Amino acid sequence: MSFGKNPHVPKAEAAEQKAADAVDEIARERAYREAAHQWDRAAEREKPGKQRSAYEASATRNRELADGSAPEDDAPPPGRDQRQLN
């Protein structure tokens, strides 16, 4: 791990992937809730601004997915830049 990087972001992304790969509803819900928790932790480490808002939006989106109220799609969550994921 390098200095200056938020360690909770890869954990949140891994939990989202785990949710996408889950075979049953309970495992999917649990993984989305874990992803939301990790996004909250990532947001706490950021200064107020664009990045923090994006992390908070991801946490909210994952909670909605866990509750079953948000449509699941293949598009990345709002505020996430695909170039950052590489």
Write the layout of secondary structure elements.
Elements: H1 8-21, H2 25-45, H3 50-67
Helix pairs in contact: 1-2, 2-3
Task: Give the H and E element order.
Answer: HHH
User: β content, as a range?
Assistant: under 5%
Overall pLDDT = 84
As for the number of domains, it is: 1
Shape: globular
Helix-and-strand structural type: mainly alpha
- Output the number of helix runs: 3
What does this structure look like?
It contains three helices and no strands. With 86 residues, it is an all-alpha fold. It has one domain. The longest helix has 21 residues, at 25-45. The chain is globular, with a radius of gyration of 13 Å. The two termini are 15 Å apart. The model has no long low-confidence stretch (mean pLDDT 84).
Briefly characterize the structure.
The protein has 86 residues and is mostly helical. 62% of the residues lie in helices and 0% in strands. It is built from three helices and no strands.
Key terms:
0% strand, single chain, 86 residues, globular, mainly alpha
